[in-house]
Amino acid sequence: MTLRTLFLSLFLVLTSFALPERASAALDPNDEYILISGGPALRYWENYRREEHRHDQWWGNFVRTARIRVQQLQKATDNKINITWLVYRPGYETRATEDGDPLISHIESVRDKYKIRLVWFSRTEELINYVNSGQDRRKIKVSGFEYFGHSNKYCFVFDYSNHILGASKAFLHQADLPKLSRKAFDRNAYCKSWGCHSGEAFSQAFRRATGVKMIGAIGKTDYSDTYKQVLPFVSPGGRWTS
Questions:
Q1: By three-state DSSP, how is residue 116 classified?
Q2: Please, what is the average pLDDT of the chain?
Q3: Span between the terminal Cα atoms of the chain, in Å
């Protein structure tokens, strides 16, 4: 293991929990750090549930947490990091109509404030294509890959309870993972799913497909303290695993 690789590995562990004021070694600014935000549920559907089982009473869980990570990563690298934020647009369009709030503009304001690249996607194929060829992957590798959104043990679900109560029509299933190019990822890429249950099957499938570890949760993740600038945490009885 080279000294640079050792520093990089240490940096990525630290940034997933508590970041130092300054990172002793930064990610290669020529590589690309990808954050993904799935869409929120609609209140129309979730109001059919009992109160304690309702999702996404606030629309911004998966946007605010991505913004927290942007802030952490930029601070830790003195802004020497190339961040791309992929956001599932249809989910925010429908929730914007329901809430009567210009959510697309709110999301774009995060892009503008932190000067990051925002890429909207509407279909799973668009996300896969961006990872594989959104940049010249011979020169610009994916050095980080983090997902904020609904998930289960087998897939990321981008529009959970947005069109169908308790279900999704747009998702990245573990069966789709072999479509991701291994050559797109740096071999030391830091990958993490902040969604529920990903560590129970999806993380392992991701590693088989890409050759890169993905941290995921055994059990549910909790976004209830997002408004306090706190990243999701594993619910009681659960744990993080890779």
A1: coil
A2: 87
A3: 20
136, amino acid identity: D
The token pair that represents 53 in the structure block: 């089982």
Does the domain made of 27-241 have the CATH classification 1.10.10?
Answer: no
Q: Where are the beta strands (DSSP E) in the chain?
A: 32-37, 83-88, 117-121, 142-148, 150-151, 155-157, 171-173, 185-193, 216-218, 221-222, 233-234, 239-241
Domain ranges of the chain: 27-241
Name residues whose C-beta falls within 8 Å of residue 174's C-beta, 6 or more positions apart in sequence.
154, 155, 201, 202, 205, 206
Write down the pLDDT at residue 87. Answer: 98
Give the tokens for residue 156. Answer: 């990321």
Beta bridge partners of residue 35, listed in sequence order: 85, 146
13 token code pair: 């562990």
Report the distance separating Cα 213 and Cα 190, nearest Å.
Answer: 8
Note the pLDDT of residue 20.
32
| E-assigned strand segments in 73-133 | 83-88, 117-121
Is this prediction's pTM over 0.70? yes
Which one-letter DSSP state was computed for residue 215?
B
DSSP letter for each residue of 149-204: SEE-SSEEETTTTTSBTTB-SSEEEGGGGGGS-GGGEEEEEEEEE-STTGGGTHHH
Tracing tokens 């109160």 back to the chain, one arrives at: 51
pLDDT tops 50 at residue 21: no
